[in-house]
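Quick look at the format.
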Amino acid sequence: MLTPYVFTSLTRIADLDSTGFDVAELPRDQWADGDYVVATVTGTLSSLYRFELTNGRIVEAMEGTPAVGAFGKRAATLEATGDWAAIGPDGSMEALTSAGLFGKALSVAPTLARLMSLSYSGHVVRDGRKLTMDDFVSPTPPTHFSMPVVLLIGTSMSAGKTTTGRIIVHELKRAGLRV
């Protein structure tokens, strides 16, 4: 019988919800981006205590719930920034996104509700080896485009990327180009 974990949407590429695994605390020097980990929900609930599941559904998180997510970094400066590498020896961290990105919050906008508090329970392991997001994806061969590509990047959410893209598309169409 499988333990009733909450499988966040970051686990949708994996078979974790259908194939057994163990949970083991690993030494800090073995932690890395993309590691699948189990964390237990702690703290006083807020409006951000919810998870997005592998099917896209949103569920409320309850204190004590074990959730499977992945270590990572977030740099949404107008909401919250964080990094798994900042997790202290006590293992306390936050859900940096409802999709299951786990790390220690470094900066949180004052207008944002309190992030979901978590406690590190251990890494997802199978046959004594930790599982990572990379274990469930195949490398993609390089692709060469035969058409021009425009890449818009910005420093944060609400930096103007979508607005700029809409203006560029409008102006290129106005110039008679197919976009």
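Next, a different chain entirely:
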Amino acid sequence: MAARRHAGERLVDWARASRDDARPLVWFHAASAGEGLQAEAVLRQVQRLRPDCQSVYTHFSPSAAGLAGRIEVDVADYLPFDLPQNVDRLLSAVRPDLLVFAKLDLWPELATRASTAGTDVVMVAATVSPGSSRLQWPARALLRPGYRAVAAAAAVSPEDGDRLVRLGVARERIRVLGDPRFDSVVEKVSGTSPTDPLLRFGAGAPTMVAGSTWNSDEDVLLRAFAGVRRAHPEARLILVPHEPTEEHLRSIERDAAAAGLPPARRLSASKEPGPLMLIDRVGVLAALYGAGSMAYVGGGFGRAGLHSVLEPAAWGLPVVFGPRWSNSRDAALLLEGGGGVALPRGGAAEAAAALESQWVRWIADDAGRRAEGGRAREVVERGRGASARSAEMLVELISSRSPRTSPSAGRSVRQSVP
């Protein structure tokens, strides 16, 4: 809330000082870090094709603040609340040619008022899960005007396109172009240095990297790891909680001790690998997957949803996850491609037994594990190219627009936007 409070003022100040009406401007909005990475992949391609464009990036979640600090745009900041007075002042100041929403987080006031002002409203990486609350009453009725304002939508799949139509996007404005996240994860993995010190934590031993875990995941993982170590005492587990708070970390340490496991080593206090590594930092998971022989992705036991399975797959690791994966298209692709395994529904004991069995099999059958990891990487490779296709769609829209005939620098813009 504190960071958001004066975001509107900062954006208006930038526009008053730096908006060049002789250049087109593309405004990307991506709510959080995941959507931000998808947006960034497309944005880079737009900048390559149209280096004359100005670019704005906004977000709403604090998880994207780090990305906002490093993304190469003219200005990046939080987006103020979706209220008419905020929206009108920002649009009057920024004067975007394109307003691009990543994934599904389309703001109805911003979208409808931008369209009325002559801005093309666009969606990229557009995906709608079958169980999305936006498809239900009353959300669908309330949000429909915003989706009707969409001039073009790059859907991830045909099924996503059908659900966008249900939300209000005109079918003729939808193109199925794939998911830019595939390009993003490959770029991230390729950018990890072979000398990154994080990679040494998996050297010399079969290592499971468990990323973005919650309590329910950790219960299953620790039970399974205790069994795995009886057969393979050299095995390692790198545990990366989704929320590495001190309270959560201490809880994991207590549970590990109760399971008879060696004391957990925290990343911040250890330079050498141990049987059980507990990661107490954020922002290192993508590189840590490179230390693994196999991967577990959290979120498949709760209601928050399965986290991204693409990063470990891009490293060429076979991936295992909990039974609640049906809203994850990427997980379905891994299962179909033979690069992923879903644990059975039931209690924690049943899931732990299944995970232990799979874990032991991967350790015992190194060639089979590598083959499954290779198939996971193939799934990622087949998904590449969506960023370039989406960027080409945006550039087409920019090129089809009439140039601004009169600068708007003289417009009256109120400096204070809540």
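The domain at 2-180+385-400 is CATH 3.40.50.11720 (Rossmann fold).

See the schema section for token definitions.
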